[in-house]
Specification:
Blueprint: H1 5-27, H2 31-39, H3 42-73, E1 74-75, H4 79-85, H5 94-105, H6 110-119, H7 134-159, H8 163-170, H9 175-186, H10 188-204, H11 207-212, H12 217-227, H13 231-258, E2 269-271, E3 274-275, H14 278-307, H15 317-350, H16 354-364, H17 371-397, H18 409-432, H19 437-445, H20 450-479, H21 482-487, H22 495-504, H23 508-543, E4 548-550
Parallel strand pairs: 1-3, 2-4
Helix pairs in contact: 1-13, 1-15, 1-16, 1-17, 3-4, 3-7, 3-10, 3-14, 5-7, 5-14, 5-23, 7-10, 8-9, 10-13, 12-13, 13-17, 14-23, 15-16, 15-18, 15-20, 17-18, 18-20, 20-23, 22-23
């Protein structure tokens, strides 16, 4: 085993540890706990989670696919702005826009207050949809997660050849019918992959469901651990959530593999988008504009109005501490996660063995596992280790060591690494594919070992990919809530934790300030996505004269 393989396998083992620990902890809890959960909370948690996933999956699929098809295959006023604007809702995590919509739509909010003022109705004289409900959670998640489907579906539509579309039109199908029967089915693997990504984020959500009082498997883990102090129940709920998440991750991987089979003809003939007029143009603008309005502009306006006049609290020592904690955790986690991803990906390149591929696959599973599951999985083994060490040191030397690992930020950073390793791996691996193997061979011929080749040859070429991975992991750590809530050291709160605490106390005006800071940081990866979309468009326009074109009637 090489010096490069040892750290790679240790990183994979760390990523595997929380999942294995959850399995062992749940199995060791006994059947009594399982039966008790089955008779009490498990059916309710599982049913709510399943229904939430169903609503979010259908809604994100319809919105994301429709918007992607419109911007890729049609032309209407403002299409280019919508093409990049449709990714803006990724700026906010769902729990933050939940705070904004609660202030707008709750009983004392602007909408219902205006309705009562206009009509003279009392609180019992009318019906209004309840924002603090399963439907409210589904709406918040849909607003921020549909871009997953949009981005993958848009890429699939742009890569399609017009050959199949021409054949459908030749057989008498109209343009819209041909789209539903040909274009969308061909892009189905990408659409399904986007929906599965949205479902994994839905399973991982804690902040939105907890704030709206909706009981899901994710909220059940936190309640069992901290509310009921039932570690066995928390472990078995985490196991249930882990199983569902791994099933979704497997399905997503299969759908991603299928995406390689539908774009072979795109180099030969590219379809010219149809131009929309009149009512069709208005409908396209509404379809693409409403998700941006509801998922980004309206929540931003509400949060700014709530925080207006309170931004000075950001400069108080207390809030500067929250900001420092968030930035520290995000920076350290980003650097360590990307460094670990480089080791894993480079080991897979230098030693393309079955073991290295398995190590990469194991490390990439973490993104499918909710933060609460990872937190429970890491706390069990390290708390046991801390207790054993404390007992040994006190018995042998009379020293009380306390919780050395469990109560530190390093275990929390380890949870972040497990959770977001897949993001860093994807960025680094995509960068490595741009390095021709002959460059490795030339460096080795000149006497450079693997580490020297990585430092001198690959690192300069990988710099954009490394910076992208650092930025995305940094922002995701800033937004992560469930793992931070469960594992943070005592009196070590972050902006996300503070926003959640204030909102839970119905202090929405104060919660808006840290929420806006988190949203401002979230703009950074969205800018990267927008730049990527611009590059794709430029490349497509540059290649268009070399391709055949077909303009639908």
């Amino acid at each position: 085993m090489s010096k490069l393989s040892i750290p790679a396998f240790l990183i994979a083992a760390l990523c595997m540890l929380p999942m294995a620990a959850v399995v062992f902890a749940a199995a060791g809890a006994g059947f009594d706990t399982v039966l008790s959960l089955g008779e009490t909370v498990l059916p309710r948690y599982a049913g709510t989670t399943a229904l939430l996933c169903l609503i979010v999956g259908v809604a994100t699929g319809i919105i994301g696919t429709g918007a992607a098809w419109l911007v890729a295959n049609t032309r209407f006023p403002g299409r280019r702005l919508f093409e990049v604007g449709l990714v803006l809702p990724l700026v906010y995590p769902a729990y933050i826009i939940a705070y904004a919509y609660t202030d707008l739509l709750d009983h004392p909010g602007l909408v219902q207050s205006a309705l009562r003022d206009l009509t003279g109705w009392g609180p019992r004289d009318y019906w209004f949809p309840e924002i603090r409900s399963l439907g409210g959670v589904a709406a918040m998640l849909t607003f921020v997660l549909y871009p997953y489907v949009y981005l993958l579906a848009r890429a699939a539509f742009l890569q399609q050849s017009s050959t199949a579309f021409i054949a459908a039109r030749t057989l008498g199908q109209g343009p819209w019918r041909a789209a539903f029967k040909v274009s969308i089915p061909i892009a189905r693997p990408a659409i399904a992959g986007g929906i599965l990504l949205a479902l994994m984020e839905t399973l991982a959500d804690y902040g939105t469901a907890a704030y709206f009082g909706v009981q899901t498997l994710a909220t059940g883990i936190y309640v069992s651990w901290f509310g009921l102090f039932d570690r066995a129940a928390a472990a078995q709920l985490a196991l249930c959530l882990l199983i569902v998440a791994l099933v979704l991750a497997t399905l997503e991987k299969q759908q991603r593999a299928k995406q390689r089979h539908y774009n072979a003809a795109s180099r030969f003939e590219q379809m010219k988008p149809a131009r929309l007029h009149g009512l069709a143009s208005f409908a396209a603008i509404a379809w693409c504009g409403l998700p941006i309005l509801l998922g980004f502009f309206l929540p931003t306006a509400i949060l700014i109005s709530l925080a207006w006049g309170r931004f000075d609290i950001l400069f108080t020592p207390r809030y500067l501490g929250f900001l420092q904690h968030s930035l520290t955790l995000a920076a350290i986690a980003g650097v360590l996660t990307v460094a670990a991803a480089i080791v894993l990906a480079y080991n897979g390149r230098v030693r393309a063995t079955a073991a290295s591929r398995v190590a990469i696959s194991i490390a990439g599973i973490g993104y499918a596992v909710p933060g609460g599951v990872i937190a429970v999985g890491l706390l069990f083994p390290f708390a046991a280790f801390d207790n054993m060490l404390d007992q040994f040191m006190e018995a042998r030397f009379g020293i009380d060591t306390g919780l050395l690992i469990t109560g530190s930020i390093w275990l929390l950073i380890a949870a972040y690494m497990v959770r977001f390793m897949a993001i860093a791996l994807n960025a680094v691996e995509s960068g490595l594919t741009a390095v021709h193997p002959n460059m490795d061979a030339a460096a080795r011929t000149l006497g450079s070992g693997p580490w020297a080749t990585l430092r001198r040859v690959h690192a300069p070429i990988l710099r954009p990919s490394i910076l992208t991975a650092l930025l995305i992991v940094f922002v995701d750590v800033m937004k992560e809530l469930p793992a931070t809530l469960i594992m943070r050291p005592f009196n070590y709160d972050t902006l996300a934790v503070q926003a959640h605490r204030l909102a839970s106390d119905e202090r929405l005006q104060e919660a808006a300030v840290p929420s806006l800071v988190i949203g401002a940081v979230g703009v950074l990866p969205v800018i990267l996505l927008i730049r990527s979309i611009g590059r794709e468009r430029a490349q497509s326009q540059a290649q268009t004269p070399l391709r055949g074109r077909y303009e639908p009637a």
